Amino acid sequence: MLKPTAIFGQLILYGAFAAFIGYFSTSPKYRQIPDDIALIKLSISHLGDRECRKRTPEELAKLPPNMRAPMECPRERSDIRLEVDFDGQPAFRTVMHPTGLYKDGVSTVYKRFELKAGQHRVAVRMNDNLIKPGFNFSKEAEITLVPGQVMVIDFNPDRGGLFFK
What we know:
- There is one protein chain.
- The relative contact order is 0.20.
- The chain starts with a helix and ends with a strand.
- The chain has helices at 4-26, 57-62, and strands at residues 37-46, 53-54, 71-72, 80-86, 89-96, 107-116, 118-127, 137-145, 150-156, 161-164.
- Strand 9 (150-156) and strand 10 form a beta hairpin.
- The protein has 2 domains: 1-30; 37-49 and 78-164, Immunoglobulin-like (Sandwich), CATH 2.60.40.
- It is an alpha+beta fold.
């Protein structure tokens, strides 16, 4: 049988533990980003284009008749070059490599940028076939970010390519 002092001691310890947990569940106040900052998330997953080449007439003549496809397209996907600028200054440059054993999977990038709230010029350029020079996808816009806002830069070929939301 427990003595009253043991029960009282347990109540004190359990109460102190509950108060400790209660305090740290609400304090100190956690802020993901500072008050005057907005967040831009770059999140892109895309299959690079195939690096196809046209076969020469000599190559086609050497092949059996049932294998004479005019274009040779390997299984591998192209690397993807991506550039992001904020207010005319380069912010991020990368080359995304395809995943998979045969390099035929998606290329993926995720990056967070913290910017001061306010007016910004955002430019994103992407090339999903490095054989072709330049960029085949680009998006540039003047945006206004409010404090605490989270904007996403994404890619969807069905929506016209790069988009901001």
